[in-house]
Design brief:
about 1050 residues, alpha/beta, Rossmann fold, about 10% strand, single chain, glycosyltransferase, 7-stranded mixed sheet, 8-stranded mixed sheet, Glyco_trans_1, 27 strands, transferase
Length: about 1050
């Protein structure tokens, strides 16, 4: 039974904790195991620590032995009874841990099989094989590159050079979460404000200093919280001034932090809770970018659109994807820390189930943001090849083998059959070396000549942080082992302390300095941080490391260079023992100051040390290996000197100028995607029409003139040919419309039944009458009717007519001419016209129609044809027929559950009728299967789940509104979207944003919400803010009075 003494000790400790709980608590400590890690006062609960030690350190046999012992010694004392019950409960926790591990293994195996099937399907579709030579070239591309010390620029890239100095590039960076400012960064204040903040600020400065780059905007969230410094509420902060030799308008050049309001203005929001506020951030950023592009375009009238939009971390990647999709410009992303990697690590620990992890970290919402980034990105910037293969390889939207094959086909000029994967660019992170001076090269100066610890002597002129660190040491002259990171369990500081404490030669030879953020009172810190710092203090006490370990409470960002200098002066070593290190910026920083390095073998340090050749890699789980590596570098001065020399010689490879040159070289290789349209005249400053001019009346003459145009086309009617010129009314109307179809290159016919009535079917894209006096921006406000009124069979209900009439009536008769109306639906354009006519509403009453789940936009005031520019805009990466065949194969769960709905199809929308009672996959499941086959589409179930629309990636009803805001200058802040309490599967995306949303009670009978996502995915609260002043509901229904009251609430009456 001696082997069970540890279990007994831990159980007794838990009982001791329970005995000290506040009076009045009826539950013992073990009954609180599932309530989290804090007690009623919010302080640390040691129960979790002891239970974790028991569950993870012992197996079921040990628990059984302990339980038998407790049973055998049972008596009437309450403590023994509690011990028996607690032992039984923890045994069940251990069983639960095993079940979680087993379920995780099954989930991974199932997902692996699905990925393999997706790869096989894609390979089968791409039946053309590569030649042997090309196979060898494709397969060796990664292995050859891995032999390089740093990332190799592919042979088809041209390096950025001085020849590009005359370019005027506008680059947008996005880093949404954390506290971002240019000076006195509060790194380590919380888990959201870390190395990423420093990285993006320095990247913005470095890009702005690169020849050819005119302006860089770093977009982040504006925060006006009284708990934070006022600088985070400033709309704009200049990082760098434009160069003195700038040839353009120097006032607008340089690098800036631009803060966009989104969500509660007076509240700091952690990254896990930011997701519902992303659409509002995107809308605000869209306004800024559009205005800046026009300003930078100057008198030429051509906006200077962003060269790239670069998102950092999952939340900003989703923002960048939406912005790039709305603007039609290239998108770049950097994951920094990846959600799937974190999910797999947490599941391997076995302490939390997937549901618990998702509830705590909103991890599935984060993963979906990263997947959406992969869908939209032209390029993914990574720091290592290991990150590409082992981390991005976990995602549905990226497969190393399939990407290699697609790249080889693209290089040969062979069609990829609508499949796409982003370009992975391995670019080492940069660093600002401005703080590194020539004095840092000098290590011969004795440390004793710089510092004095004789209390009787006058204080020397040394950096304050030196004195703060040195006060911990009994002998400050010994070499210093330095670890610098935020207090995060992933940084693995506890293993480092164990390695130091258990290696006596290392303790005798060196001191250890731990810089772990800033702290005041550990008990008031977040539980994970407090638990780690408490463990650090316990380990120092356990190994009696007093006088040998420094752990200062505070340091400023400006102190970091001095800390590196102190370690170098003592001929010390820097160590990064993180479990996984995505970048390894601290490794580069330490190397710049001449410190040899010991670093984790997992992540960025692998490539960094290959390039610098100035240190050793270790297994972060092996404390003996860590101690041996540190001892080797500290004890062998010849090796120490060689590593220092190599690091200083090669450090230029990680300078910001080198990073920016590689970055721009890769970005130049991205598709030079730019908007195919120009903003409407009024959007660029044309005066609006007079306030008192009723626009509805002003359009009447234009519409009357719509038939007075000349037609010079050849009409083919059977065997007869007729050539018309002049007045087209002399011809049969049906013949005229058919001829216009053929002239437009379409084979479908528009059925004309007299007057202005159109029957169901497609409409000619060329049937447009351009009115130079009119655009959407002339309206004072816009009402968007997006209520999905369908019955169980997918037919429009009579509620639609009442809603349209009531919304128009709520606009007010006096203000009717200044209010524009749009209709948004998942139905086809022909079905919309028919439905409006059945409601006794002419299409001309609407300024715009958004049809086919956002795949079609048309303007009845210009004609019935769809917007060809919008079609070209959303058609980017549209897989077309390749998506059609894949969806037909994947959407039918049982036989013929889905079938082509030919009448509802369009050039950018494939519609499928869902069989009554048919089983079809949910949107998230079907999208996952398409992603595994490198097909990027947007999927929407509409008409109460009786139809599936497959549309381009950037086509959606909410993105169509953003297109209108850019194309026609429609003000989203003065737009009201009317929806029901449920609707199509894209319903949730219509609710948040800069616009106002009014939910009409009892307007929708049947929706498609059950087909959105499964139980293991993210939830609605991750998409729609729980409380937002921009979202209101009517109190009773959708009568005119109810709508007017709701409009008053949102400030639009």
């Amino acid at each position: 039974m001696a082997g069970n003494e540890w279990i007994n000790g831990y159980l007794e400790a838990i009982l001791d904790v329970g005995a000290k709980l506040e009076e009045g608590s009826k539950n013992s400590a073990w009954a609180k195991l599932d309530e989290g890690s804090k007690n009623s006062k919010g302080f640390i609960d040691p129960t979790k620590y002891f239970v974790g030690q028991v569950v993870t350190g012992f197996d079921e046999t040990d628990f059984h032995k302990t339980w038998i012992k407790v049973i055998a010694t049972r008596n009437t004392r309450e403590r023994n009874n509690r011990l028996e019950n607690m032992c039984w409960r923890i045994w069940h926790l251990a069983r639960k841990k095993k079940k979680i591990e087993w379920d995780d293994a099954r989930r991974l195996a199932k997902r692996y099989l699905k990925r393999e099937q997706g790869r096989k399907d894609a390979a089968a579709d791409m039946s053309e094989d590569l030649s042997e030579g090309e196979k060898e070239k494709g397969e060796s591309s990664l292995s050859d590159a891995s032999k390089e010390n740093i990332a190799r620029i592919n042979s088809d890239l041209q390096m950025w050079s001085e020849e590009n100095k005359d370019k005027r590039l506008y680059i947008v960076l996005i880093s949404l979460h954390g506290l971002v400012r240019g000076e006195n960064m509060e790194l380590g204040r919380d888990s959201d404000t870390g190395g990423q903040v420093k990285y993006v600020v320095e990247l913005a400065r470095a890009l702005a200093a690169t020849r050819g780059v005119y302006r860089v905007d770093l977009l982040t969230r504006q925060i006006s919280s009284p708990d934070l410094d006022w600088s985070y509420s400033e709309p704009t902060e200049m990082l760098t001034c434009p160069p003195s030799d700038d040839n353009g308008d120097g006032e607008s050049g340089g690098a800036y932090i631009v803060r966009i309001p989104s969500g509660p203005r007076d509240k700091y929001i952690h990254k896990e809770s930011l997701w519902p506020h992303i659409p509002e951030f995107v809308d605000g950023a869209l306004v800024h970018i559009t205005n800046m592009a026009k300003a930078l375009g100057g008198s030429t009238g051509d906006p200077m659109w962003p060269y790239v939009i670069h998102g950092h971390y999952a939340d900003a990647c989703e923002c960048a994807a939406m912005l790039a999709g709305a603007l039609g410009v290239p998108m770049v992303m950097t994951g920094h820390s990846l959600g799937r990697n974190k999910l797999e690590q947490l599941l391997k620990q076995g302490r939390l189930s997937k549901e618990d992890i998702n509830r705590s970290y909103h991890i599935m919402r984060r993963v979906e943001g990263e997947e959406l980034g992969l869908d939209a990105a032209e390029m993914v910037v990574t720091s290592t090849r290991q990150e590409v293969e082992e981390q991005w390889g976990l995602y549905d939207g990226f497969d190393v083998k399939l990407e290699r094959k697609l790249r080889a086909r693209s290089r040969r000029g062979v069609s990829c059959l609508g499949r796409y994967m982003p370009r992975m660019a391995v670019i080492p992170p940069g660093m600002d070396f401005s703080h590194v001076t020539s004095q840092d090269m000098d290590t011969d100066t004795d440390i004793a000549s710089l510092i004095s610890f004789d209390r009787n002597q006058a204080k020397r002129d040394i950096p304050p942080i030196w004195a703060e660190v040195m006060r911990f040491f009994t002998n400050p002259h010994k070499p210093m082992i330095l670890a610098l990171s935020r207090p995060d369990p992933k940084k693995n500081v506890t293993t480092l302390l164990k390695a130091f404490g258990e290696c006596r030669p290392l303790r005798e030879l060196a001191n250890l300095t731990l810089i772990l953020g800033n702290r005041d009172d550990i008990e008031t810190m977040p539980i994970s941080t407090a638990s780690l710092l408490t463990t650090v203090l316990k380990l120092i006490d356990k190994y009696d490391l007093y006088g040998q370990v420094a752990y200062p409470k505070h340091h400023r960002q400006a102190d970091v260079p001095e800390i590196y200098r102190l370690a170098a002066k003592t001929k010390g070593v820097f160590i990064n023992p993180a479990l996984v290190e995505p970048f390894g910026l601290t490794v580069i920083e330490a190397s710049a100051y001449g410190l040899p390095v010991v670093a984790t073998k997992n992540g960025g340090p692998v490539d960094i040390l290959k390039a610098l050749n100035n240190g050793l890699l270790v297994d972060p789980h092996d404390d003996m290996a860590i101690a041996d590596a540190l001892l080797k570098l500290v004890a062998d001065k010849a090796l120490w000197t060689e590593c220092r020399k190599n690091g200083r010689k090669n450090i230029h490879r990680f300078s910001w100028p080198e990073h920016c040159k590689n970055y721009l070289s890769h970005a130049a290789h991205c598709c030079n995607r730019r908007p195919s349209w120009r903003p409407a005249p009024h959007a660029t400053g044309r005066p609006a029409l007079p306030e008192n001019e009723p626009l509805t009346d002003s359009l009447r003459d234009i519409l009357d003139l719509s038939i007075r145009f000349s037609v010079d086309v050849k009409l083919n009617c059977g065997t007869d040919s007729v050539r018309l010129s002049g007045d087209p009314t002399a011809a049969n109307p049906q013949q005229l419309l058919d001829a216009m179809y053929k002239a437009a290159g379409t084979t479908e016919s528009l059925l004309y039944n007299g007057g202005n009535a159109f029957q169901r079917g497609s409409v000619p894209r060329s049937l447009t009458i351009v009115n130079s006096r009119w655009n959407l921006n002339d309206r004072k406000r816009h009402f968007v009717i997006a209520v999905d009124c369908f019955d169980e069979f997918g037919k429009f209900t009579k509620n639609l007519s009442d809603i349209i009439q009531n919304v128009m009536a709520a606009a007010g008769s006096d203000d009717r001419g200044r209010t524009g109306f749009l209709f948004s639906t998942g139905c086809s354009l022909g079905e919309v016209i028919e439905a409006l006519r059945s409601c006794h509403v002419e299409p001309g009453e609407f300024d715009g129609l958004i049809c086919g789940s956002g795949s079609v936009v048309c303007y009845p005031w210009k004609g019935i044809g769809d917007d060809m520019e919008y079609g070209a805009h959303v058609g980017y990466r549209w897989p077309g027929e390749n998506a059609r065949t894949a969806v037909e194969r994947l959407a039918a769960v049982e036989g013929d559950d889905v079938a082509d709905d030919v009448e509802a199809c369009g050039s950018h929308c494939y519609a499928y009728a869902v069989k009554d009672g048919g089983k079809v996959p949910r949107v998230d499941d079907l999208r996952q299967r398409l992603r595994m086959r490198a097909l990027r589409c947007n999927l929407v179930y509409t008409r109460a789940g009786t139809r599936l629309n497959v549309v381009p990636l950037f086509a959606s009803r909410d993105m169509a509104l953003r297109y209108l805001s850019i194309r026609w200058g429609m003000d989203l802040s003065k737009t009201v979207v009317f929806v029901g309490e449920k609707g199509d599967t894209d319903y949730e995306s219509l609710l948040p944003g800069l616009h106002k949303t009014i939910i009409l009670k009892d307007a929708v009978e049947h929706g498609s919400e059950k087909l959105v996502r499964g139980s293991g995915s993210y939830q609605r609260e991750d998409v729609v803010p729980c409380e937002s002043p921009n979202i209101v509901s009517t109190e009773l229904g959708y009568a005119t009075h109810d709508i007017s009251i709701a409009l008053d609430k949102v400030g639009h009456m």
